[in-house]
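Hello,

Our lab assistant flagged a job as stuck in the queue for most of the afternoon. It eventually completed. Since we weren't sure the result was trustworthy after the delay, we are filing this so someone can double-check. Below is the sequence as submitted and the structure that was eventually returned. Let us know if re-running is recommended.
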Amino acid sequence: MIPCPTCEFVNPLGTRFCRSCGGKLDLKMSQVTGSIKNLKEQNRADQISSLGRSIFSLSAFLFIFTIVVRVMVVPAMPIADLPPAQVDALLPKDGPAMTSTLPLSEFKRMSWRRDHASTILSGLGVDVVQLNTWQAALAASQKPDGSFPGDDPLAATGLATLALQAYPQDGSVIGAAAKARPWLQTQMADLTHSTPLARTLGMAALIDAEEITPGTLNSFSMYLRDGKAAAWQAFTIPLFNAKDRPTDLILLRKSLAGDVWANVFDALLGRAPTIDPKSYFTDAAKALKTGEVRLAWTFASWQLAAAPKDLTETIAAWSRTAPAPVDADTMAKCGPLAATAVAVLTIASPARIPPLWLQPR
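-- returned structure --
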């Protein structure tokens, strides 16, 4: 730019006469050079400013796009509608909290249940006296060697031990479970001739009691993915710490059809499940006639907090009625009290482990 020596009007480079006063402009080489330099600097500044605006616009677009995709494509985990006091009661008030990241040896599930199960279940309206009665009947059927009667003693003992451990309040119940576990340990040393149901229930009882080494736990996990005792295998997997939990669940998942199980597997694998709440309402529960499907429904509903109020109403009602029948194969393999054991596991579900929605990831 060339300033006029008369009126000081700044004229564009190349102008011979001032565009304001008409005076002749005496150009000097230094003025031309300086004007060219200033023009280049101005152009560079304009380019940088334009680039900055473009980057900002792109960043804003990507941010908004990410939020939209998150909201529309990835559903959020459900939020429990239990009253805060009930949610607080689900976790221990002192000692180590039960999380999915604690090493196996640092948390004792049985002591947690002894301290908190009665408060939790009573607060949810469960008839704990009936639970004690059912467990007493199971304990009374125990054989001198620690096993329980049934066509498949390993399956029968695994199921009975799980039920006794689910609500460890009475001394005789705790003692019966403790007596059964050494027998299970001996039987689990050789699984080559055991049935899938027996293997799974035996593993579940020992994993539940945390009386198993990490090495054995890893070897057991291979038996929990074939889908040959699918429902019981799925019930066992949440008992693993997150770092030890089996993740290759393709065969198992194929064996358990339906939205309820799809939701459970998504939660186990850390994905947000898409839930149809109607599947977990009280009306849906009324259609469940066998012990196994009631246990599956309770397990899924509790793990996902799909409809906590309906769940608590349902299990409270079930705790005041006779145990639902189990299928003939379960009854034969697990003995005459199989239905009682399944009922205990169903009713005591809220006290067995904190559900997935309360477990830190």
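-- support follow-up --
The delay was a queue issue, not a problem with the job. The result is valid. The beta strands are 2-3, 10-11. Residues 70-106 have pLDDT under 50 and may be disordered.
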